[in-house]
Design brief:
The structure holds 2 protein chains of 2 kinds.
Chain A: H1 2-12, H2 22-36, H3 41-49, H4 55-74, H5 83-108, H6 116-127, H7 143-158, H8 160-167, H9 175-182, H10 196-223, H11 232-243, H12 260-273, H13 277-284, H14 290-293, H15 296-319, H16 324-339, H17 354-364, H18 379-397, E1 401-402, E2 406-407, E3 410-411, H19 414-445, H20 451-462, H21 483-497, H22 501-504, H23 509-512
Antiparallel strand pairs in A: 2-3
Helix pairs in contact in A: 2-4, 2-5, 3-7, 4-5, 5-6, 5-9, 6-7, 6-21, 7-11, 8-10, 10-11, 10-12, 10-13, 11-12, 12-16, 15-16, 15-17, 18-19, 19-20, 19-21, 20-21
Chain B: E1 2-6, H1 10-19, E2 24-29, H2 32-41, E3 45-48, H3 54-59, E4 67-70, H4 75-88, E5 93-98, H5 101-108, E6 116-119, H6 120-133, E7 137-143, E8 148-154, E9 178-185, E10 188-190, E11 203-208, H7 210-220, E12 229-233, H8 237-248, E13 252-256, H9 260-269, E14 274-276, H10 283-288, E15 296-299, H11 304-316, E16 321-325, H12 331-337, E17 342-344, H13 346-359, E18 363-369, E19 374-380, E20 400-407, E21 410-412, E22 425-431, H14 435-441
Parallel strand pairs in B: 1-2, 1-4, 2-3, 4-5, 5-6, 12-13, 12-15, 13-14, 15-16, 16-17
Antiparallel strand pairs in B: 7-8, 8-11, 9-10, 9-11, 18-19, 19-22, 20-21, 20-22
Classes of the chains: A mainly alpha, B alpha/beta.
């Protein structure tokens, strides 16, 4: 297999030698798949518990393991050493894992998910913790399949590769590059004084602890009768998608199915999950509250959350749709949920006025913190770009002034700033291209999508937010989009999740050259 | 005393010049030219070789020496020389010159087994900071790690000084934590009593805390404003050290550095300092950035003529007070003749610092005023001294004045009922002719 692809690629690049070790890459991807297969045990158990068919998960699990073993047998590579292969591993992993994740949907054959494109869309939306769904009838969904959807978000939220780095022995070398490719945001791993494995381990430990806490809390609400709808199944299902900032729900009307207490609790955990996990670890485990409170990104994050909530609140109060208490709850919840890219909803915001709608679209571009489970541009990049602009203005008046840009009092390298600028430019570019593709395709296939709704869908998928506008709103479904539009959105979710650059470089010739 | 000196550069030569009369000197250097120039001028033994070599050190007579001074321009050579010396001859005291402030910090924490350490950059920075802090002073010096400051002021006819000039000292508003150590009137030194008064035309020597010294400056010269806005030309090690010292004094600092990388390093270190990547010779730039609005300019580029030119240009643009850091011994005269207000030679400052220590182990520091007519001594009091356990009120005055006591590393400014304890360090002001007598008495 390797010789084949090598030959093909060689022809493609006019007999130039390939500088990427494909064997090592496939070897590693195979290992990742193999280690993913035990994850199917969880939905299998759920299926058995509720007396549903466990076959879809058993088959999918065996297929995944077999594919992993096959890749490893075919491509026995050396240990992964170069950062170059890291990009390819991350990109491939995020294409292949949802493929195997979609198998149970197709085999179970329930409703719209029986179609492969819908199943893959749902699976990608799951693993990338986006939360855009093609489902329109949640009652048809079996318990086990519903839990699998939630569980994919939890697996993907902190990152499959991050998990692999934490536990796989063969990733001792090259793990740093992999982690940097997958971990959201420009977190500066160089400055960390612990090993990369330790970083990955801490991330997952905290992730697990947060999830268990939320499950316990929600379940307790149910037990104490504080929320009549909440049981252990719902508690686990929603904790998975809250901590991962995914946004899938087992309910058709998302978090609106629960009471105000559950809504506030979920909002709080969404805010926490939107903070840099490495800093959260220092706060919770190492008892260094300053790691969070003195963080420039954290302050701006809270500030934007507050500002977003207030704007929405003002809009809701002037419109007078809700009473004051409800308006506060909906405004805060929606601002938190959209900005952090979770994508839950307590109410259908597509019914809100234009100011609120534009605010929500704007918040989709903010994102959570670097090193969190959220998507989109991330607060720290906005902070850095703001400072870059301020310096630009200063230098038009004082051209000779040397003024380094600082983050948390540390000087940020110019190289990093360039990368941030490049990222945001490409991000906006992809958003524009994606919107255009969706609106043109919808016009061609006669699906009623306004340009604004197309922009909403592109922003919601690229930013891994989830719900958009129009029929793709929080209580709606992406099912009506054409196959081509869905493919575009799958690509957007994929690129948004790994922060674009690791994928874009694959399309440059220099990447493949020796 | 036998002294072994490693390094015959400018610092070494200045030390030799100060010590060759009273002490037996051996100088080690790798450069024959320097050594022969030195031995032509002074009666010193010279050894050709690397000071960081045990063989050379032994050849140069380390085992018979009382003091080793390592003052080459390279920190690590100096440190290794001192380490070898400590191993070979544990009783020989060591002095190390360094340009690295981190080494100095480590030494202060007693983690480096060296008896005395001097940093040119830091001494220069402190000298500049003292001038910037007290522009009205004729001369100023610090003791006890900067806790005690000695300042000499001119008493001039200025408006607003009537609370201190022409008033009996016991009535006058003398700042707390300070003492008038002496009044120099028509070339005669008066040790002041309560009924003395300052007159226009006097020079007054004050010992006190840095805060009190500043208050004296304001009292005697209310018209001279503090130099609270300084522009520094050159962001090399000296410029950076000066900037750090000035920031500590809450002075607004701007820096001009032609080298891109050094400007970047300085900008990275000082978030509050505006750093320009420019030459400082461009009138259009000086004009546009309103450099002339700075109250003082410090010129510490590597090249004396450049400093000279830049200082003159800055003066033309309106910088009132200029301080130049010069590298060539001759330049001090040139600079001061040309109208630069103060010229400081780091090597000379360093050499002076080393000479002070070399003088007498019990005397921590000696400063001279008025050329060498007056001395300020920092002496540890012997337990059997007649002054011990006496309150200051009853102490006889014999041509000397104790301005401050350093007890447990803290400075005390004594009043009438304070008592001198054995083991105290005292800062004494005296005429040079009585210095030996004072040392003996204490």
């Amino acid at each position: 297999m390797t010789t084949l692809s090598r030959a093909r690629l060689r022809r493609l690049f006019r007999r130039e030698t390939i500088g990427v070790d494909l064997a090592a890459t496939f070897d590693l991807v195979g290992a990742l798949l193999l280690y993913l297969s035990p994850a199917y045990l969880f939905p299998t158990a759920v299926a058995l518990l509720y007396g549903e068919s466990a076959w879809p998960f058993v088959i999918a699990g065996v297929t995944t393991a077999a594919a992993g073993v096959f890749l490893q047998i075919v491509a026995t590579g050396r240990e992964l050493a170069s950062p170059r292969e890291g990009f390819l591993v991350v990109a491939l992993t995020w294409v292949l894992v949802p493929v195997f994740g979609a198998i149970p949907f197709v085999i179970a054959g329930e409703g719209v998910l029986a179609q492969p494109i819908n199943a893959y869309f749902e699976s990608v939306s799951g693993f990338t913790a986006t939360g855009a769904t093609v489902l329109n009838d949640f009652d048809e969904l079996s318990r086990s399949l519903g839990m699998w959807r939630q569980f994919t978000q939890w697996l993907g939220g902190m990152g499959i590769v991050v998990l692999a780095v934490a536990i796989l022995p063969q990733l001792r070398v090259g793990g740093r590059q992999l982690l940097q490719s997958e971990l959201p945001g420009p977190t500066d791993l160089e400055r960390l004084t612990v090993s990369i494995r330790e970083v990955a381990r801490r991330l997952w430990l905290l992730y697990l602890a947060l999830t268990l806490t939320l499950i316990g809390l929600l379940w307790l609400y149910g037990q104490l009768g504080l929320d009549e709808h909440m049981d252990l199944f719902d508690a686990a299902a929603h904790a998975f998608t809250t901590v991962s900032l995914g946004g899938f729900s087992t309910e058709g009307n998302s978090i609106a199915a629960f009471g105000a207490l559950v809504q506030w609790t979920i909002a709080l955990f969404v805010v926490i999950a939107g903070v840099n996990f490495l800093r959260l670890y220092r706060l919770f485990v190492q008892r260094q509250p300053r790691a969070v409170t003195r963080d420039d990104e954290f302050r701006v994050y809270l500030l934007v959350l507050l500002a977003g909530s207030l704007v929405l609140l003002a809009e809701l109060l002037t419109e007078g749709i809700y009473g004051v208490a409800d308006a506060v709850r909906h405004a805060v919840f929606q601002a938190v949920s959209i900005m952090s890219t979770a994508g839950f909803a307590t109410t259908d915001y597509t019914a809100w006025g234009p100011l609120a709608t534009i605010t929500i679209l704007g918040l989709m571009f903010v994102g959570a913190s670097a090193g969190s489970t959220g998507g989109s541009i991330k607060v720290v990049r906005h902070v850095l770009i703001g400072r870059l602009l301020r310096r630009e203005l200063e230098q038009t008046v004082h051209p000779e002034v040397v003024s380094p840009i600082r983050l948390n009092r540390q000087v940020v390298e110019e190289r990093t700033l360039q990368a941030v600028l490049a990222f945001v430019l490409i991000y906006v570019g992809l958003f524009a291209v994606g919107s255009l593709a969706i609106v043109v395709d919808s016009f061609r296939t006669d699906v009623g999508v306004s340009p604004f709704e197309a922009m909403g869908a592109a922003a919601a998928t690229l930013g891994n937010v989830g719900p958009g506008f129009g029929f793709a709103g929080p209580f709606g479904s992406y099912e009506s989009f054409s196959g081509f539009s869905k493919t575009v959105m799958i690509a957007l979710m994929w690129m948004g999740r790994v922060e674009i650059i690791p994928i874009i470089v694959l399309f440059t010739r220099n990447y493949w050259r020796a | 005393m036998r002294i072994l000196l490693v390094g015959a550069g400018q610092v070494g030569v200045t030390i030799v010049d100060a010590l060759h009369d009273e002490h037996e000197l051996t100088v080690v250097d790798v450069d024959t030219g320097r050594l022969s120039a030195l031995s032509n001028r002074y009666d010193v033994a010279t050894v050709l070789g690397n000071g960081a070599s045990r063989r050379i050190l032994q050849e140069a007579g380390l085992l018979e020496s009382d003091l080793l001074i390592a003052c080459t321009s390279r920190d690590e050579i100096n440190l290794i020389t001192a380490i070898f010396s400590r191993n070979l001859a544990p009783d020989t005291r060591t002095i190390v010159r360094t340009t690295n402030e981190e080494y100095l910090e480590v030494w202060r924490e007693r983690q480096l087994d060296v008896d005395f350490m001097v940093s040119s950059e830091l001494e220069t920075a402190n000298a500049v900071a003292r001038i910037v802090g007290l522009p009205a002073a004729r001369q100023t010096d610090v003791f006890a790690d900067g806790q005690v400051q000695i300042v000499e002021f001119d008493v001039e006819a200025q408006r607003g000084t009537d609370e201190i000039v022409g008033v009996e000292l016991r009535e006058a508003r003398v700042p707390l934590e300070s003492k008038v150590a002496g009044i120099i009137r028509s070339d005669r030194m008066i040790i002041p009593r309560g009924d003395q008064m300052l007159q226009v035309g006097d020079r007054v020597v004050v010992i006190g805390s840095p805060q009190a010294a500043r208050e004296w400056g304001e009292l005697l010269s209310p018209a001279t404003r503090r130099l609270d806005d300084v522009v520094i030309f050159g962001a090399g090690r000296t410029g950076v050290a000066i900037t750090r010292a000035l920031i500590d004094q809450e002075v607004r600092v701007r820096m001009i550095e032609p080298d891109r990388e050094r400007a970047q390093v300085a900008a990275n270190e000082f978030p509050t300092v505006r750093v320009y990547n420019a030459t400082g010779f461009d009138p259009e730039f000086l004009d546009r950035e309103r450099i002339g609005q700075s109250r003082a300019g410090v010129f510490c580029m590597r090249n004396d003529p450049k400093n000279h030119y830049a200082a003159t240009l800055a003066k033309l643009h309106g910088v009132e007070f200029t301080i130049a850091v010069v590298h060539d011994a001759v330049s001090i005269d040139v600079f001061e003749r040309a109208g630069i207000d103060v010229a400081i030679n780091p090597r000379q400052v360093t050499a002076e610092e080393i000479v002070r220590f070399a003088h007498d182990p019990r005397t921590r520091q000696v400063a001279m005023l008025e050329g060498d007519r007056f001395e300020i001594l920092d002496i540890t009091v012997r337990p059997e001294s007649e002054y011990v356990n006496q309150p200051f009120r009853t102490m006889p005055i014999r041509g000397a004045l104790i301005g401050a006591i350093v007890r447990d590393e803290r400075a005390i400014f004594p009043r009438g009922d304070d008592v001198l304890l054995p083991g105290d360090r005292v800062i004494v002001f005296t005429e040079s002719s009585s210095a030996t007598r004072v040392e003996r008495a204490l």
